[in-house]
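Thread title: Can someone regenerate the structure for this chain?

I was given the following input by a collaborator and told the matching structure tokens would be attached. They weren't. Posting the sequence so someone can regenerate them.
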Amino acid sequence: MKIAYHAEDAVDAQLISDLLNNNGIFAQVRGAHMQGAVGEAAAIGNVKVWVNDEDVSQAEAIVEEWGSATFVEEEDAQMFDDSLNSSEDQNRVISESSFGLMKTCFFIICVIMVVAALLNV
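Best answer:
Regenerated them for you:
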């Protein structure tokens, strides 16, 4: 195994390890336990992400792409904005669920009335 990433801390290393694992590359964090043993400052640079030898170049490319990611442009950000039309969507969902609940209650009342009518016969 070879080092694919030198992390600042255990959280940074775990983030990169998860990124690589989610992209089909087996990755391990090594050295994270040293932070608790020797303190935060002394362990800086000792936390690393390791991958299999054959995956090093692909892992480095994924980490490089992740590191050079840019922020979403303002007009594109609207695609991800959940607050737009959320009140309309909420009202629609509430009214649909209320209608379903009313139908279920009506059905149950009808069944009870039929059973009550049959018991009186």
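Helices lie at 10-22, 34-38, 40-43, 56-67, 74-77, 86-120.
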